[in-house]
Amino acid sequence: MRFRKRERDAEVELNITAFLNLMVVLIPFLLLNAVFAQVSILQLNLPSDNAAPSDPDSQRPLVLEVLIYQDRFEVIDRQSGPLKIVPNTEDGAHDREALHTFLVQVKEQFPDITDITLLCEDDTSYELLVQTMDTVRLRNVTLNGQQIKRELFPDIGIGSAPPDARRAGGAS
Length: 172
Prior knowledge:
The chain is of the alpha/beta class. The protein has four helices and seven strands; from the N terminus they run αβββαβαβββα. The strands form two sheets. Strands 3-2-1-4-7 form a five-stranded mixed sheet, with helices on one face. A two-stranded antiparallel ribbon has the order 5-6. Helix 2 packs parallel to helix 3. The longest helix has 20 residues, at 17-36. It is elongated.
């Protein structure tokens, strides 16, 4: 039996037409979608231990903090104490609208204040923290019949809330 040698001289041409067709469609699609995919970044100020002014005359009139607990919001002034407690709604969700309404009233009394600190428990959900940040950051103002977003307290700091005294007291 005789074995035949295969011809190795035949040239093979690589067909890249399908690949080029894919690239022609894919590249413009990706470039067009890149314009719409924008990430928004919110600048936060973390509280520091040496934030207290050394000169008593330079104290600010109001140092706002919002404590986020499982069953309520607490709005306090770091210098004088609690201002308002906003309990959850009947369905158990945090009442962000009541918080927003109260903060708008505070802003009307102290228009120069731009700082606020959000203090949350360790088990606070990320979604609740972001929603609360949006609540305290902007407000809607009607100007010439149009709704315009204005800053409420844009300089947001975040930190950990002190332990919930109500829950600790109720567990005893």
